[in-house]
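Q&A log
Question type: sequence-to-structure
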Amino acid sequence: MRAARGRRLRGRAFHAAVAVPTVLALALLAALMLELLSDTVSWQVVEPRGSGETFSFLDGFSITSSWEKVVTLELAARGSDQAEIDALIRDPEERRKFAARNRVELMLWADGKLLRWVVTGSRDVLVQDRGLLEGWRQRDELSAGLKPGQHLYLNPWLDISFFTKSASRTPLMAGLAPALLGSLWIIGLVMLIAVPLGVGAAIYLEEYAGDNAFTRLLEVNLRNLAGVPSIVYGILGLTVFVRLLGLGPVILAAALTLSLLVVPVVVIASREGIRGVPNSLRQAAYGLGATRSQVVFRVVLPAALSSVVTGVILAVARALGETAPLLVIGAAVFVPGLPNGPLAQYTALPIQIYTWVGENEREFAHVASAGIVVLLAVLSLLYGAAFWLRRKYEKRW
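Response status: OK
Response body:
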């Protein structure tokens, strides 16, 4: 009895010891997310250079274009007549110029009222900026200290316009559009390059190559390459793709560099899945007269799909979060326009966040936090998709 009781106590102690780091990790992750989310919202005292008017949520809301509706209200408040307003709304060049200098924002709180539309401009004067929690404690003091012409806003930096604005030296006008589109271009090309190479190499090593010195050497090198620091791949990409092949610091060079980085991950994950398929399935297919290629692509590969897809998604998630290789091969830290092809100049989500973090203006900290939240959300979706697909296609033999 004493021995059994001792084993139970040791088992409970072991479970508690395992649970403590897990709970601690979750608590730290929750604290990080809370800090980031709170930093994407700030209390601001602003002296606007526009009309200074705010508009209710329903007055500015439109299913087709809230931007046009709010801009119409703002221009009318500035004293423009209907003809001038219609001319600006219809002229694409005037719309572009207005959008480059102004931002339509839905403030969570403005001058004592909830959900108010505000047109903020690059010439507005920021008097004070407080974080969400600090500003909440000081909101009465901030409201009482407002001077004529000043307004108190609760500004959410992570809004729709954040995804549509291009890069800017002004925090108010800075957006994620070029970086987000650049990351999509890179990841799309990485999948086109790395997936066929990685899965094909795994199939060759497991189904076609014999057990000899060459394949053993290749397997050791693949496992070593999976642990090589990413900056080494950046140096390789700079030497081969940017300089030797003469591509320059473009999207294609970045995609080729990151493909080299993630191919070993795809190969290892795919090999594990293929190796886990029972040999009896292969023998049964051969017994029915199937050729080797038919066995591989119609029996083995579908059975190993869960591991293959999981490996691909995890590799893409790693490529999405890489910064060092892109900086080494010369990715731009400021791209005013959207990339339009594989040979275009680019930036990416991690590089854009890195640039914002290095800026001196306080408001860039809010912009960087909003960018980090977007990046973490995309990575969470990818990891969630990998988990779901693995559970969906997982087979137990």
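Response note: Strands lie at 41-47, 55-56, 102-110, 113-121, 125-131, 151-156.
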